[in-house]
Amino acid sequence: MEMESSSAVEIDGSVMEGGGQILRLSAALSCISGSSIRITKIRAGRTSPGLRPQHLSGLQLVSDLCSGDLQGASIGSTDITLTPGKIQSGNYTADPQTAGSVCLLLQVSLPCSLFAASSSELRLKGGTNAEMAPQIDYTIKVLLLLHLVLHSVYTEMAPQIDYTIKVFKPIVEKFGVHFDCDVIMRGYYPRGGGEVAVTVNPVKELQPVVMTERGTITKIYGRAFVAGVLPYKLAKDMSSAAVRTIRKEIKDLYINIAALQEKEMAFGNGSGIIIIAESSTGCVFAGSALGKKGVYVDKIGIEAAEMLLRNIRHNGCVDEFLQDQLIIFMALAKGTSRIRTGAVTLHTQTAIHIAEQLTQAKFTITKSEDELSSNNTFIIECVGSGAANTHL
Which residues does 390 contact at the CB level (< 8 Å), separation at least 6? Predict the structure, then answer.
């Protein structure tokens, strides 16, 4: 379905969540569907409206991936038009030259790369561990195989690269998505300087996913880290505080939160913690927090632990941060997906709104009738559009 720019689908960038998520979803779906889009009132309600360096870098990356024509894209722009061409595999680089999250660059480029003719290599630069966005983990090859974007509206936690690798990756693999991520350098706010290399393999079509049975929590583990000149004791204190908090509610599982000092492969100073919980049916949940100036490290550990506990209490199958990230894959899959989750976030509602505008997917949200679930547990169902990779 290819459209001329004169018949571009109009997207209101100020609706609902009204942030960069609308840009990322709209650009990716435009690239995949071949539909031209015009996005207006971009980030209109933000303190600094319009495109910031990270948003601009993401749009340019998508335009490069599909040999598109991107008009009106500059720092501060509130209106852009994207007319996509054909998706091309190859080697691509995105560098906003800020601490903007590499994970959100991955969010916009990964779906597009799936519909290329062969594998694509993405070199993404910026912040790998920045407050209010997804974190990345260079220790995936060494320790646990283990999302925060600068100035995103995720005020509690957003995807981090650690989260992307340990939570997002195994779940999207259920749709048939396969990618490898190698962290070359961690980068922290405000300096950035992080870099990841991602290899994305193409798919013929995405498979629907059903995740409605949470099962029991079987494993809890994680990592508390310090980087740069920060002392190792901070990581140990974060880990201890998190374990104590979880122990008050979950007493029958061994909890392993490693304390690490990252002396190499880190640009700048930073600290943080991510805690992962796995269930007997393959569900994965996380809680995380980054160190902040003037905040005791015990509080950071407690914050991450409470976030994890909140996300496993509702007996859903995904946490509040994975919810919205799965919408695009549900919309593109061939068949009906069903996912049990906790309260449906505004980010998820926004993602559904954009997906239904730009694909033939149909979503419904119903309250769960499972007596084991809380009153705030819902089933998100999607009859996918069945997007096909015409190159394969």
Answer: none
Describe the chain by its helix, strand, coil percentages, rounded to 5: 30, 30, 40
> Residue 226 has what pLDDT?
86
Catalytic site residue 151? no
The set of residues, in sequence order, having a beta carbon less than 8 Å from that of 138 and lying 6+ positions away, is 128, 182, 183, 184, 185, 186, 262, 265
CA angle at 106 for the pair 75 and 266, rounded to the nearest 5° = 90
Residues 208, 289 contacting (CB under 8 angstroms): no
Mean pLDDT for back-to-back runs of 10 residues, the chain (392 residues): 62 93 95 96 90 92 95 94 96 80 88 97 74 40 29 32 89 97 70 80 98 96 86 93 96 93 64 94 94 88 96 93 96 98 95 97 91 76 97 90
Q: How many CB atoms lie within 10 A of CB 71?
A: 14
CA-wise closest residue to 69 among 86, 54, 84, 50: 84
Count other C-beta atoms under 10 Å from residue 190's C-beta. 11
Count, residues in the chain: 392
Contact 111, 61 (CB under 8 A): no
Structure confidence at residue 127 (pLDDT) = 56
Contact by Cβ (8 Å): 181, 198: yes
pLDDT value, residue 195: 83
Q: Which two tokens stand for residue 82?
A: 């994207």
Catalytic pick among 55, 347, 353, 391: 347
In 3D, which of 205, 198, 134 has the Cα closest to residue 175?
205
**Spatial distance between the Cα atoms of 187 and 165, rounded to a whole number of angstroms:** 16
Coil/strand/helix, residue 304: helix
The pTM of the full predicted model, rounded to 2 decimals, is: 0.87
The rounded distance, in Å, linking the Cα atoms of 136 and 210 is 27
Question: Measured on CA atoms in the order 37, 109, 202, 323, is the torsion positive or negative?
Answer: negative
**Separation of first and last alpha carbons in the chain:** 17
CB 55, CB 20: distance < 8 Å:
yes
